Amino acid sequence: MTVDPATELPDVPALPPEPRRGIVALLVFDGALCAILSVLFLGLYIGPVPFPITILLAAVINLLLVMALYSETDSLRTAMLPLAAWLLGFAVCLAVGPGGDQLAMADWRILMLPVAALLPAGGYLFSARIKAIIKTARPPAQQM
Fold first, then answer.
1. H/E/C letters for each residue in 97-115?
2. pTM: predicted TM-score of the whole model, two decimal places
């Protein structure tokens, strides 16, 4: 069976699928939850030695959250939402509660936590932005 080229439909590129809002909301919530749990378990000790494993876990989890959200939405702005939620959750933990209670202790670990938790994910977003800029700036390859 042959198709008349005059009546054939042109190849229309498919629209990218819409991101699933539930997945996006869950990943953003996980960013805030990661911050709160990181601060709660930051004072972990093994015997007399401080064991701040949550600093490393927060770095890995934030990176995975950003990568998952970027692959879901293909938007760098949306991929930054788990980091914003992490910062908001961290700020809540730094605030003094009623009665003067505070989750965050004055220690070197509380200073290392935001740096280590945000740096890998920020580096990933930076490299993804640079790749997008290079991709749009590079002229298309000429076909022969």
1. CHHHCCCCCCCHHHHHHHH
2. 0.80
User: Is residue 112 included in any domain, yes or no?
Assistant: yes
- The amino acid at 22: G
Rounded to 10 degrees, the C-alpha dihedral 123/128/129/133 comes to: 140
Closest CA to 105 of 43, 59, 62: 43
- Provide the β-strand partners of residue 98: none
Contact of 27 with 69, CB cutoff 8 Å = yes
The count of domains in the chain is: 1
Residue 107 is assigned to a structural domain of this protein? yes
What would the pLDDT profile of 10-59 be if each residue is shown by its tens digit? Answer: 666 666 667 788 999 999 999 999 999 999 898 888 888 888 899 999 99
Radius of gyration from C-alpha coordinates of the chain: 22
Hey, is 16 helix, strand or coil?
coil
Domain that holds residue 28: 21-131
